[in-house]
Amino acid sequence: MIQQVTRGIKISVATSFEGTFYKDYKMHFAFGYTITIENRSKDSVQLTSRHWKIKNALSRTEHVDGEGVIGKKPVLKPGQSHTYRSGCLLTSPIGSMSGYYNMINFTNTRQFRVTIPVFRLNAPFALN
């Protein structure tokens, strides 16, 4: 499990390989990831949006921006956490993801970024 703390917000990531399939005459590799966002600060915060940088082994990089996570904009009081599961498709059996969450601190109404650490996506048959 990959973990990182930014401004009192702990991000934990676990990944899984879900399988392969053909789409548009190309082989695709499906990966799942589970992220837990834990508020270790003294202030209530809300996740408002996300930015992903998705890389595959073929040197292709994709940037994805969106509101919230899986349709939600969770509010986390001190000590609370939010866990969600999502996934991505790559055209290679190895890749990585990283990014950040945009959040707002309800105590001082300031926006801030929380780093999502780089995590690897590896099909088990691709590595020895």
From TrEMBL:
PROSITE patterns xrefs: APAG (PS51087)
One Pfam entry name: DUF525
Single biological process term from Gene Ontology: error-free translesion synthesis
Location of the ApaG domain: 3-128
Coiled-coil region: none
UniProt cross-references to InterPro entries, sorted A to Z: ApaG_domain (IPR007474), ApaG_sf (IPR036767)
Domain of life: Bacteria
Record PANTHER family: F-BOX ONLY PROTEIN 3, POLYMERASE DELTA-INTERACTING PROTEIN 2
NCBIfam families: PRK05461.1
Descriptive protein name: Co2+/Mg2+ efflux protein ApaG
